[in-house]
Amino acid sequence: MHSWWESVSKARSRIQQLSSILPSSYSLSSLADSDRPARSLLQSSDSYSAISSALSSPDAGSGTDPLCNWLYDTFLSSDPDLRLVVLSFIPLISGLYLSRVISSSSSSTSNSPSLAGFEAVLLAIYAAETKLRGGKPVLISIPDLSQPSLYHSPRNKVGSNAARVSVGVLSAPLEPQIAMKSTKRAGIIGVALDCYYKVISQMPSWSKLDLCRFASAWAGQECPCRTEFDEIETVIDSFSEIEDVGREMGKLVIEESCSDSRGSRIPLPWELMQPVLRIVGHCLLGPLNSDDVKDAASVAVRCLYARASHDLVPQAILSTRSLIQLDKRARDAAKMAAANAASSNANTPSKAKKPEVLLVSK
Question: Residue 350: pLDDT above 80?
Fold first, then answer.
């Protein structure tokens, strides 16, 4: 009981501090007064919109930015629900940070804006994951195709290597980082996105929409090859339509007045592309995702396929092609099911109504 009340008190304190940072037009008092303040904040579209607008400001992201400091301190708290709130903004922070740092490095101006606030949040998440892994790599077991599977009957073992298990390295051991170096930038953000993917089932739809929108912008491919698997164009074909979808879900898309609101084309090494594809794959195929999220992911995966085809990245080409094929099959199956349901309803005779008997008093 004491730990529960301590968690609620801590969450209310963090929300009250956040309320003092945001403009006075946004009221968070109802969230602070709820039984689970942190969860209420996570599931509030209005609060996400307010924080997104503040982070999207051209002056946001510096080391003195109070909102970045709030996100940093909140993530360092031991409350898991408060950490989920911070993780829900990882797609937005990653998208804004990468777009700004790439554009500033390509421009000739020397007085680029400070992004130390964004970097502090990303480094805090990276440091927590580094400590959690304890210097060990992330391994996966690879099945031996020379051996019979669980579905073979009878299961006759072949040869003397029947007990051999192949192990693949999914992620190498993480090295501690105290600064966002240009050579380590993609790896640090990739780890942050991987942490987001671990809890993606608890992330709100508007956060997933941000990731899909930025992934489309990061790929930056508008060539016709992104639709080569589509006989008939059935996906949303412009980023403006994705923004319209976002507005209908609570006007959560960043204001178009921001110069980097849609992100920009950036380098996509595999250490960054891999977690992005995992998240996009969940958004595309997750059964509980809304149609808006699936449509945005459908656009993103096709843009990523076009980018991988131009960059000649075999593992990315294979992954994106597989996701596109799965998306097409899922949509075709949904259309067929809807057509069958409509035809069955049309062929089902309606029951004849019984004649009404009116009692007339004499």
Answer: no
